[in-house]
Structure formats: structure tokens, C-alpha cells
Amino acid sequence: MIDKYEDPFVRISSMIGGDEYLKVARSLLKAEDATDEEIASSTGLRINMVRKVLYDLFGKSLITGIRVKDERKGWFVYRWRTRRDEVEHFIENQKKKITDRLQQRLDYENASDFYHCGNEDCPRVTFELALDGMFKCPTCGNVLNLKKNDKSKKAYSKKIDEMRKDMQQIF
């Protein structure tokens, strides 16, 4: 179980991948420069799961790996270290991606007229699709009517504004 006082690196790792990520992150904090085998031993996780988590965290730039020669075995191993200073950058990058996606969706909502038959089980369709289908619902066959999307546009705009304000406060 994770609590709000846990290290931000551990909390974000847990959010990314759940319990396995939580265990690996805690292990990395306890033993900097640990090998994947040492992490597997300390967490009780299988080595392939530890490697999957490590490679994912490495791909997100939250950890770094240093290749060193294992003197006992004679082959190269990686020693893993947290990049706790990158956690905030990672979070901000994710917020930016989400904001960009929300903006794309808002642009789509602003640029399109949508039609709907009134049946909750049926999707709304764009003007082009409605025209192609002679303004008959492609799912149930009922007549399609113009559907206002003001609520959706307002909700997207509000969320985008909140995200941008949140990002400005940090910088």
C-alpha cells in the first residue's frame, strides 16, 4: 500500500504500473546501483518482471543504467539508479501530452457538426456520415437530428484551462 508521504519517485512508479513498479521503485531507493538480479531478490519478483519494469522506467527517463563488468561471472550487467530529479519533468511532460490531446479533441468538436437519433445506445455521427446515410442512424435506422455539443466544448475548454494554469504555477 502506498501513502501520500511516500517518495514521489515511488508514487509515480506505482501510478505507471502498479504493485510490481512499486516494489522495484522502493528497492531502487534502498539500494542505489543495484543489478536486476539484486532487485529481483529483494522484491521477490521474477527476473523477467523486474527487467520489464526497469526497461519501462528507463524508457521514461526515471532511472538510468550503467553497464559494468561483473568480476565474478565475467559478463556485463547493468546497475540501476533512480533519477528522482526527473520525476517532476516526467509529470509535466505527461500533463502537456494530455493538454495537447484535449486541445485536439476540442478543435475536432469545434470543427464538426454532429447528429444523433436520440437513442442512448447509438453513437453520434458527423455531418458527412449523416449525409451519406440519408440522415438515418447507422445503428438503429431512426432519423438523425443536429446535436449540440456546447457542453462537451465547455468541459474540454475548462479542463484545458485548469491544466495550463497548473503547469504555469510550477514554472
Question: How would you describe this protein?
Answer:
The protein is an alpha+beta fold and 171 residues long. It folds into two domains: 75 residues, Arc Repressor Mutant, subunit A (Orthogonal Bundle), CATH 1.10.10.10; 83 residues, no CATH class. The chain contains seven helices and six strands. The strands form two sheets. The protein has a three-stranded antiparallel beta sheet with strand order 1-3-2. Strands 5-4-6 form a three-stranded antiparallel beta sheet. α1 packs antiparallel against α2. It is elongated. The chain starts with 7 loop residues before the first helix and ends with a helix.
Please describe the structure with a list of short key phrases separated by commas or semicolons.
14% strand; Arc Repressor Mutant, subunit A; 2 domains; single chain; elongated; 171 residues; 7 helices; alpha+beta; 6 strands
SSE blueprint and pairings:
Layout (H helix, E strand, L loop, with lengths): L7 H10 L1 H12 L3 E2 H8 L3 H13 L3 E7 L6 E7 L4 H25 L2 E3 L8 E2 H6 L12 E3 L2 H21 L1
Antiparallel strand pairs: 1-3, 2-3, 4-5, 4-6
Helix pairs in contact: 1-2, 2-3, 3-4, 5-7
| Count of β-strands | 6
Average pLDDT, rounded to a whole number, is: 91
Radius of gyration computed on alpha carbons: 24 Å
Low-confidence stretches: none
Shape: elongated
- What summary fits the major beta sheet? 3 strands, antiparallel
Proportion in β-strands: 5-15%
Distance from N terminus to C terminus (CA atoms, Å) equals 31 Å
Summary of the model, kept short:
It is built from seven helices and six strands, in the order ααβααββαββαβα. By secondary structure, it is of the alpha+beta class. Helix 2 crosses helix 3 and helix 3 crosses helix 4.
